[in-house]
Amino acid sequence: MAMDASAFLGPAKAAGFDLFTGVPCSFLTPLMNGVLGDPGLRYVAAASEGEAVAIAAGAWLGGRGAVVMMQNSGLGNAVNPLTSLNDPFRIPVLLIVSWRGGPGLTDEPQHALMGRITPDLLDVMGIPHAPFPTTAEAVPAALDAAVKAMADERPFAFIVEKGALNDAPLDAHPVSARPRGAVQDLCRGGERMARFDALKTVKARQEWGQVMIATTGKCGRELFTLGDSPNQLYQVGSMGCAGPMGLGLALTTERPVLVIDGDGAVLMKMGALATIAAEAPPHLTHLVLDNGTYDSTGGQPTAAPGVDFAAAAVACGYAAGITCDDTQGLAYALAKALETEGPVLIHMRIAPGSRGDLGRPTVTPDGVARRFRDHVAGRS
Length: 380
What we know:
7-stranded parallel sheet, about 375 residues, alpha/beta
């Protein structure tokens, strides 16, 4: 039995799910085509499934219901953010996962193992799930059950078997390449500043009214040490997900969004630069604090010394890229980003190392997420 994608998408939209993201799968083609053809829905083409989960989490912070669509093989890419972002921050998103290699299917060899373990993997992650409805009459009850499960502040997954959806044509225009932005190099080559001092410069610009997402590790810990605030979210785990999470947020709020990232984290999900550029949120600033090390784990070197993050961002389609290495350059770059219809990436080269007396946020991740969401909505 199969149904048209519209029979699901209409009720899903009515239930508050209007932002979709993910990576294609042939089992989900009718659903993705349906989203792309519906002017009332937004689809964000992610570079990886883990990135898509972070985008959806950011949209939730902005008050939107979000759906992540993926092939079950992509669950492997999504395990990290589902377990180290959604779980500790208690962020519910709706997952629609295909079941390649499912019971009774003859499929490609790469789907055999994941086909056997898909429901078990969701169980291990503590994610409740159900079969995707295959009749229009079954959709309202299925969505109601999903929404009730997500009220427990965790994701819910529908598993889509082959043939669950009727074929649907693709009615979408290709993503247009953006005009190349400018790259500005403000580096003076002097002694580099500590990350703590760079964050002081950021904190001094509270007149922005911006909301800030700090990447995992010592970046968030130092930001907290400088002064806790409802407009700050300190990621834990989910390395590489600060940029995609900031994108999801920037697509759902008019507030200026500042992502404070690290070189190792950006390298982990470099494809997110292309996704951010393609969506082109005009009020997103992406600050990369580059010390060339994995500072939180002992200072092991990253591959960043040979990487020009500003040029890479502009090559992907960012509106501008700025490289700097001192307080004056960073202050100028932050001001310039506010004046520029973004996204803008600031590549700030800093010294390795961190404070020895560094503490950790005393607010729980789920508490941080909820007060941040309230702040974005103007409720704090």
